[in-house]
Amino acid sequence: LRIIAAYLTPGRTLTTALVDAYGPRLVKLACENIDEEVREVAASAAEEACISDPVQFMGKTVPVLLALLTQDCSRSSRLSACLLLKRLVDKAETSVCPFVRLLLPTVLRLNTDEDHRCAKAANSIFASLVRMAPLVQRTPTENENNDSRVKSVVDHLIFGEPLPPCKLPTRLLDSLKAGKISLRSYQMEGV
């Protein structure tokens, strides 16, 4: 598959058929197989397929990767998925733009993962995604998170839109007032 993937041409029927059939399977194999060598060969084949047609490949594999990047997966699968996503984002370059809005919330959460290797990879992915931000369209992507708080944070990161101020709990406001502390409006942004 790795050799075949190197010769795929974007937009061709054969490329689409192979990516549809094998893309998600390659990702699962690269992240969940117990044999390190099998995982590496699958990850290399996934990289080659991503280079050949990044938008098609990412479109088919990002949902699988996002599922593997949840806390419900094993630590080793999550780490493998994070490392694979880093490789794919690096290879896809600007072709990753349609997926930035979808990937950012998960990558942000992974920045504080308990596995420092996963967190380090997520930090690198985050940096790559933010560099692509000026190229991202304002149109929502399929499967995008519908939580308005998540959308406002993503829009803040990508488009520089201000975060809406939040209402602080009464107890905290009373504590600030008792300490004669007043917060300015810019300090309230994003609290």
Q: Compute the number of strand runs.
A: 0
C-alpha Rg, in Å? 20 Å
Global geometry = elongated
Treating each run of at least 4 consecutive H or I residues as one helix, how many helices? 10
Class per helix and strand makeup? mainly alpha
Strand count, sense and barrel status of the largest sheet are: none
Mean pLDDT: 85
Helix content, binned percent: 55-70%
Low-confidence parts lasting 5 or more residues at pLDDT below 50?
none
Q: Report the span from N to C terminus.
A: 48 Å
Give descriptors for this structure:
191 residues; mainly alpha; 67% helix
Written overview of the protein:
- By secondary structure, the protein is mostly helical.
- Helices cover 67% and strands 0% of the residues.
- The protein contains 10 helices and no strands.
- Helix 2 packs antiparallel against helix 5.
- The model has no long low-confidence stretch (mean pLDDT 85).
Provide a short characterization of the protein structure.
The protein is built from ten helices and no strands.
What is the element layout, followed by pairings?
Elements: H1 2-6, H2 13-32, H3 36-52, H4 54-68, H5 75-92, H6 100-110, H7 116-132, H8 148-159, H9 170-178, H10 185-188
